[in-house]
Q: What sequence folds into this?
């Protein structure tokens, strides 16, 4: 067997889809057991039959993408994607972070596609770097889980041909409004309802119990089933809805990482308490990931949605909390988790194949040599590189806004007009870099919004002190407050220091 020059040899893990509980290490096959062909360059040039992938050559972008950075260059071909397309079987190709390409019955379904630009006002970086390829624009369907910018990219969606269906799950009016505001046509999938997508492919989706943002989806052709959990942590009751539709899960993309601002950005709290609270939540989410894996009982569990780091040193406090897929696997090993042998830490360019005749298939996980040290050292190199060269994210229009440009706060009163909060609570928003700009006070009970000189402490409150960029971004009305929160470009004082679900729902889904 020949390996194309310049590509490292990859170990292939193969195991049966009867959910064998043996560890992966006992099921490793030698390279000679599998003919993993890589068809590179001209061997699968444009216009030729791409065998396993149904990339329709008639599906061209509506217009040529105008991209200002080589990281967005769809003109390059992805060698790992070429290898995936050399196969004819069902499978999953990992693009990066929460983006996967699923092939079922020769049709291609793209989940949570985004460009390689850093999301959330440039606060986060995708690493390892994304597999970018023009064929991402030639898929048969796109499914987007939720509105966060590391999952939803309006710029990418606008590049798709008008004939490419875009699916989202019903039940999140704010997400639907974002798409409509961008002029992006979409199709709503009814929540918790098995839906036929055609060509023998079905989908079912579940919404998060209470946050009004997250959702998870599962697709299947009856022989190969993939659960795309992105970063949607749900109860067993919700997962049972998926299992009722698809009792056998082949590959489950399992969220596990605590990627959040709390408690790291809280001010005026005890630092020892903050550290203990962070440790508690990190461990709780690891356990949450294990519980979801147990409930879904997949043949392969991919630790998911954590190939993204805060744009700071890898060892900063924020990034210490963003555990890697390796950490999830190590945690499962350390606690003696029964299904630990099924956990496969995958990264951009890795793949899972479902090979063999129907009823007697086996799965093969194909991944490049990679470890935690390579991940951490590579990220710090990448961070130094993008610090020098930039990543093509142009925020100069926002940065140039003056105080007069962001004086209007009447839009907030319009947004909160329909809320109904019985308790007293005020949300204060100020510009930490421009303290003389005053403070916007949003009374959630009376639904009134005013500008004041300083924070008044007579009522329970949340006080968000935004960076200058985040403040201008929000009051330009080009970003929701949820997007500002996701950027982590703020500090927060809350009185009392308590978790208030109803207030957080308004902050995340209304403001």
A:
């Amino acid at each position: 067997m020949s390996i194309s020059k310049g590509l490292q040899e990859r170990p292939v893990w193969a195991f049966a889809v009867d959910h064998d509980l043996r560890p992966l290490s006992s099921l490793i096959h030698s390279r000679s057991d599998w003919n993993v062909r890589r068809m590179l360059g001209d061997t699968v040039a444009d216009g030729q039959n791409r065998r396993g992938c149904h990339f329709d050559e008639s599906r061209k972008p509506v217009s040529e993408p105008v991209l200002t950075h080589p990281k967005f260059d769809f003109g390059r071909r992805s060698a790992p994607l070429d290898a995936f397309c050399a196969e004819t079987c069902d499978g999953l190709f990992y693009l990066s972070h929460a983006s996967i390409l699923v092939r079922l019955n020769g049709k291609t379904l793209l989940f949570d596609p985004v460009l390689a630009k850093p999301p959330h006002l440039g606060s986060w970086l995708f690493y390892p770097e994304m597999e970018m390829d023009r064929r991402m624009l030639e898929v048969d369907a796109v499914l987007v889980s939720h509105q966060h910018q590391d999952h939803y990219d309006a710029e990418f969606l606008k590049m798709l041909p008008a004939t490419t269906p875009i699916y989202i799950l019903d039940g999140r009016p704010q997400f639907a409004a974002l798409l409509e505001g961008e002029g992006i046509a979409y199709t709503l999938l009814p929540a918790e309802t098995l839906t036929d997508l055609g060509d023998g492919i079905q989908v079912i989706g579940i919404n998060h119990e209470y946050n009004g943002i997250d959702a998870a989806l599962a697709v299947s052709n009856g022989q190969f089933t993939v659960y795309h959990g992105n970063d949607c942590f749900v109860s067993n009751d919700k997962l049972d809805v998926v299992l009722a539709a698809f009792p056998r899960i082949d590959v489950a993309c399992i969220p596990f990482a605590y990627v959040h601002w709390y408690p790291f950005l809280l001010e005026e709290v005890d630092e020892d308490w903050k550290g203990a609270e962070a440790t508690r939540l990190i461990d709780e989410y690891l356990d949450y990931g294990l519980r979801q894996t147990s409930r879904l009982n997949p043949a392969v569990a991919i630790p998911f949605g954590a190939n993204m780091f805060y744009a700071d040193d890898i060892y900063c406090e924020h990034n210490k909390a963003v555990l890697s897929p390796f950490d999830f696997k190590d945690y499962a090993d350390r606690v003696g988790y029964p299904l630990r042998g099924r956990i496969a830490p995958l990264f951009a360019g890795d793949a899972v194949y479902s090979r063999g005749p129907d009823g007697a298939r086996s799965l093969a996980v194909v991944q490049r040599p990679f470890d935690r040290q390579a991940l951490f050292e590579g990220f710090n190199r990448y961070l130094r590189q993008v610090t020098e060269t930039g990543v093509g994210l142009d925020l100069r229009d926002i940065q140039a806004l003056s105080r007069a440009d962001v004086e209007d706060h009447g839009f907030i009163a319009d947004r909160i007009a329909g809320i109904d909060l019985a308790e007293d609570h005020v949300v204060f928003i100020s510009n930490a870099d421009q303290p003389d700009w005053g403070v916007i006070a949003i009374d959630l009970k009376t639904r009134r919004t005013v500008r004041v000189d300083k924070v008044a402490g007579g009522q329970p409150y949340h006080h968000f002190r935004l960076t200058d960029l985040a403040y201008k971004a929000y009051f330009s009305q080009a970003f929701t407050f949820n997007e500002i929160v996701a950027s982590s470009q703020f500090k927060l004082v809350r009185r009392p220091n308590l978790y208030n679900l109803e207030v957080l729902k308004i902050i995340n889904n209304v403001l």
Summary: The chain is about 25% helix and 20% strand. The first strand starts at residue 12 and ends at 16. Residues 1-71 have pLDDT under 50 and may be disordered. The first helix runs from residue 79 to 85.
